[in-house]
Amino acid sequence: MKRLQFIDVAKGIGILLVVLGHLETTDFLRRWIYSFHMPFFFFISGFLSKLISINYITYLNKQLSRLIIPYFFFGIISIVDMLLLKIILQNPLTAKHLDDILRLFYLDGRPLPMNKVIWFLMVMFWVEMLNLLLQKIPRRVPLAALSFFGGGDH
């Protein structure tokens, strides 16, 4: 399949916006970037997706190994790191720390305070599962109307 140059340019702009959004910038610029940069990536991902022609169980297993296993792997490393730091600094664990640890298992994409970047893996997993379900809807339904979901801070 021939590469679409405008998609490469769009992904490049998206990456630059992510980097700019994570730099020390004005609050206005950060809010503006955060208002659309992740839905933009999801839109590009959906634009590039193709109909799933493999067995659904095979597809689910692929997404679990691609997204969920890394989510838990890096999440557990973050929790162990936090616990070791608490032990080294002799700081007691509080109820908030326990909630932070349990947050890894909520599976809702809320970021772990100690590793805020892995939220994307869980959200992408659910988007992939939604994509799988949407492919079962007859094409007469305007899927574009379903492509915009509200997002929160990350």
What does this structure look like?
With 154 residues, this protein is an all-alpha fold. Helices cover 62% and strands 0% of the residues.
Any descriptors?
154 residues, mainly alpha, 0% strand, globular, disordered C terminus
Tally of domains: 2
Structural class: mainly alpha
Describe the biggest sheet? none
Order of helices and strands: HHHHHH
* Percent strand: under 5%
Helix percent band:
55-70%
Q: How would you sum up the global shape?
A: globular
Radius of gyration: 19 Å
Number of helices, where a helix is a run of at least 4 consecutive DSSP H or I residues: 6
Average pLDDT figure: 79
Q: Please count the beta strands (DSSP E, at least 2 residues each).
A: 0
Low-confidence stretches: 149-154
Terminal residue distance: 34 Å
Q: How do the helices and strands line up, and which of them pair or pack?
A:
Layout: H1 5-22, H2 27-34, H3 37-48, H4 56-88, H5 95-102, H6 119-134
In summary, what is this structure?
The chain is mainly alpha-helical. The chain has helices spanning 5-22, 27-34, 37-48, 56-88, 95-102, 119-134.
